[in-house]
Design goal:
5-stranded mixed beta sheet, binds zinc ion, globular, 4-stranded antiparallel beta sheet, alpha+beta, 16 strands
Length: 389
């Protein structure tokens, strides 16, 4: 499964001269596929088409060997496989990376460019935290890691409870046994809560989902440490002993998606509001690019279908929304970017900027379908000093 380090490596890659960076995405079973052609056949057609262009027009000629190799990969894919696939290749740099991905890509696609096309990856990973799923009842604690649809169990805790009232005597002894049981499961809850706290402190995860019987939830929740509670995405009703991995994954993913959507909407409103007051928000390509280059951006928000022309300086890397032939910063020649996202998305990944894609939204559309929430605003910090001098 792909890691953040893998994605950073791809984002840092830039070919120089005539070499190519090739990105191939395979999505099994696309609902939009009306042609009823097998996805694998579509994938092979796509690669063959690029190969023909390489041979006839010299276009993408730099990628010919990689294309041949991708054709091999595509030939071995089966339409009924459960996972999507991504291949990134730059033969000139001896770079070849293959990843299985959850089958939620927009479609099967092939890109030959100077950089890897990372939008589908960013789409998949946007805002995705390291997620812990813990299942708890009065005796058991089970701990899982959930990343990109892959659920891994990381062990558990089990406590033998002393026999309860039904087996004891009525009256004093019965009550005593009951208190002992209550004490045992309180200890158990505390142990589970302590482990969660240790794991959070150790950087094992960032967000938490808990599966727990509704009847046990309030007695368990009271044990959570305040900063563990801050990381809680939600809880779902669960029978710890009988729940299957698929059910765990589905319930946790559902809660995570909901919370990510809420967070995205909240950040969007905040960015738009802050931009109106010239505070910690900017909108429009020109201002967002400037803030990105100043290192001010905390969260980047892009419309799902956002694309725009821009130029990039071949020397210092400056990206400009105006189609200027020479770089305004260093004076060297610029080159055209068919889509500014090809430069902007890797920039966001390299700098650990949180990236969200936003569904069509009228208010966002008015400001150009691009906005950023800032950590700070350089210009403003200077204003009082300038005013004083
Ligand atoms: Zn420059």
């Amino acid at each position: 499964m792909i890691t953040r380090e893998d994605i950073r490596e791809l984002a840092a890659f830039q070919s120089n001269g005539d070499s190519c960076a090739l990105s191939f995405y395979f999505q099994p079973r696309t609902p939009q596929n009306k042609s009823h052609k097998e996805e694998t056949i579509l994938a092979k057609d796509l690669v063959r088409q690029a190969l023909r262009e390489a041979e006839q027009h010299g276009k993408n000629a730099c990628a010919r060997d990689d294309l041949e190799r991708i054709l091999d990969v595509a030939s071995q894919l089966h339409g009924n496989r459960a996972k999507a696939k991504a291949v990134f290749a730059a033969g000139s740099k001896s770079l070849w990376r293959e990843f299985d991905l959850p089958p939620h890509l927009p479609g099967t696609q092939l890109f030959v460019n100077r950089r890897f096309h990372l939008k589908p990856l960013a789409f998949l990973l946007g805002g995705q935290p390291k997620l812990c799923v813990a299942l708890v009842d009065r005796q058991r604690g089970r701990f899982f890691e959930l990343r990109l649809d892959e659920l891994k169990e990381r062990g558990g805790l089990f406590r033998n409870l002393p026999r309860g009232r039904s087996e004891g005597y009525a009256g004093y002894d019965g009550g005593h046994a009951e208190r002992r049981v209550a004490n045992e499961y309180k200890q158990h809850y505390k142990q589970v809560a302590d482990r969660l706290k240790d794991e959070l402190e150790g950087g094992l995860w960032e967000k938490l989902v808990i599966g727990c019987h509704d009847t046990n939830w309030s007695e368990f929740e009271a044990n959570l440490h305040p900063y563990v509670r801050q990381r809680l995405v939600g809880h779902f009703p669960a029978d710890v002993a009988s729940l299957t991995n698929d059910q765990i994954r589905e319930s946790a993913n559902h809660l995570l998606r909901f919370s990510l959507e809420q967070r995205r909407d909240q950040l969007l409103r905040e960015a738009l509001e802050q931009a109106k007051g010239n505070a910690r928000g900017v909108t429009g390509l020109r201002r967002v690019l400037r803030s990105l280059e100043m290192g001010e951006v905390q969260t980047l928000l892009l419309g799902e279908n956002y694309a725009a022309h821009a130029v990039e300086c071949g020397s210092c890397g400056h990206v400009d929304a105006h189609m200027v032939p020479f770089c305004p910063l260093c004076g060297k020649a610029t080159r055209e970017l068919a889509d500014v996202c090809d430069a902007m998305v890797p920039m966001a990944i390299r700098r650990d900027i949180e990236l969200f894609y936003v569904r069509p939204d009228p208010e966002f559309d008015k400001v150009g379908n691009i906005a950023a929430l800032l950590r700070f605003r350089t210009g403003q910090a200077r204003t009082p000093i300038a005013a004083a001098s």
